[in-house]
Amino acid sequence: MAKKQTVCVIGLGYVGLPLAVQCALRGFRVFGLDTDRGKINKIKAGAAPIGDKFLAENLTRAKIEATTDAKVIKKSEIAIICVPTPVDKTYYPDLNPIKKAAISIAKNLKKGQLIIVESTINPGVCEEVIEPIFAKAGYKIGRDYQLSHCPERINPGDEKWNVANIPRVAGSFTKKGLAMTIKFYKKIIDAEIYPMKSIREAEAVKIVENSFRDINIAFVNELAKSFDQLGIDVVDVIKGASTKPFAFMPHWPSCGVGGHCIPVDPYYLIERAKANGFDHEFLKIARKINNSMPEYTVELLRCYLNREKMALKDTAVGILGISYKANVADLRESPVIKIKKFLEKYGANIFMFDPYISNMSNVKNLEELLKKSTVIILATDHDEFKKIDPKDFKKNKIKIIIDGKNCLNKEEIKKCGIIYKGIGR
User: Fold this and answer.
1) What is the mean pLDDT of residues 312-337?
2) What is the pTM for the complete model shown?
3) What is 43-87 written as a DSSP string?
4) Would you give the DSSP letter of residue 126?
5) Is 383 exposed, middle or buried (0-12, 13-18, 19+ CB in 10 A)?
6) Partners of 79 in beta bridges
7) How confident is the model at residue 405 (pLDDT cuts 50, 70, 90)?
8) CA distance 96 to 83
9) Could you tell me which of 185, 190, 197 has the C-alpha nearest to residue 78?
10) How far apart (Å, rounded) are the C-alpha atoms in residues 259 and 257?
11) At a CB cut-off of 8 Å and minimum separation 6, what does 299 contact?
């Protein structure tokens, strides 16, 4: 029998762990490398450290050798970097995780190894940050190793699109490296692998994808603020515009943009361009608008409380949802964190419940939250919340509902005598 090809996935989070599982399912020997011992122990026990349907169904079937020992890199023909690429408090890109991953590989390089970066990075990182790490260690691309970039594409909670079927793009420093990368992904993914002309183009793809979404979301968030003043329901307008069969793609306003991609990736392009003498004014405006939505949501609540001659101070505010996205236990860049801080600033009594994030919920269940709350902010459109009967709000004497995801039944809530306010409706 032919020897199994060995893959080492560095970083076992929302990107790396599903990828590692998929590689194992397709017949590769897989090492999963992470610095978090707690995460490693869970994986060894067959328990997914993150909530994900694909992992729940496949983790126990996949044979992953999870470890914190970087020496496993030496045993691998392919090393894939899937570490986070966050921004700091000033929104400046933090490349330290990816630098540390590259240093670990350089210390344990196997001759002829294919190194693939899946982490989202700005154009130029592979050339100016990662390659010099290997050059300093005495290694040369094409002679000692190959370096490619295949930006991750994963959508947590999506039951249709997952690591096995989403098309990908790949770029490399050499033709051989590109061929090796495409051959590898064709073995693990049942979708097109589109070759880019350069590694820098591949780096730019993911930044463009998420900046596109950020800009369009900012546009409808600004429309929501405008239409609030004009007395127009922005949701109805977007639905109307969506009847056009071409040249329009619906995006929806909300109480904020979360996740590790959309609120983060544009800053990588902004800072990269700035360092090369270009000012991305459009991207910066989009980020400013989307960052403003948590505060705007709280200000809507203050406004409607004032109309009822009530102050936000000491008012019992129930927050429905903590995760950034429906039906997943993902707290990354969640706008709820900012909403909570603004409510605290005004002295509100805050009750929070999320069926997916129990450790941050300060009530046991939805029923307790409704019982204790005077007003509600719906911040995450979990299915459980969308199914709430408006009569339950009335029974618990809820006075005001701020629907941060525009997912509740506006008319039925109003019929119950409750003040309803959505984002732009």
Assistant:
1) 95
2) 0.91
3) HHTT--SS--HHHHHHTTTS-EEEES-GGGGGG-SEEEE-----B
4) I
5) exposed
6) 8, 115
7) very high
8) 10
9) 185
10) 7
11) none
Considering only residues 89 and 164, tell me which one the structure prediction assigns the higher pLDDT.
Answer: 164
| Residues 353/366, Cβ–Cβ less than 8 Å | yes
Chain centroid to CA 60: 25
Report the run of H or E that residue 365 belongs to, with start and end: none
- Catalytic, out of 8, 82, 126, 261: 261
pLDDT at site 3: 64
187 close to 26: Cβ distance less than 8 angstroms = yes
What confidence tens digit (pLDDT) does each residue in 184-226 have?
999 999 999 999 999 999 999 999 999 999 999 999 999 999 9
CA atoms in the 13 A half-sphere facing the CB of 221: 25
Residue 258 CA to residue 329 CA, distance in Å, equals 13
Here the tokens at position 374 are: 């005077």
Q: How far is CA 382 from CA 111, 145, 221, 335, in A?
A: 48, 45, 21, 15
Band (pLDDT 50/70/90 cuts) for residue 1 is very low
Q: Do domains 6-201 and 210-425 have the same CATH topology?
A: yes
**CA 344 to mean position of chain CA atoms:** 26
> What's the CATH code, domain 210-425?
3.40.50.720
H-helix segments, 77-124: 96-107
Q: Which CATH architecture has domain 6-201?
A: 3-Layer(aba) Sandwich (3.40)
Q: What is the mean pLDDT of the chain?
A: 95
Pair 85, 95: CB distance under 8 Å:
yes
Can you read off the two tokens belonging to residue 63?
A: 């044979």
Domain boundaries along the sequence of the chain? 6-201, 210-425
CA distance 63 to 59: 8
Q: Is 261 a catalytic residue?
A: yes
How many CA within 13 A on the CB side of residue 185? 29
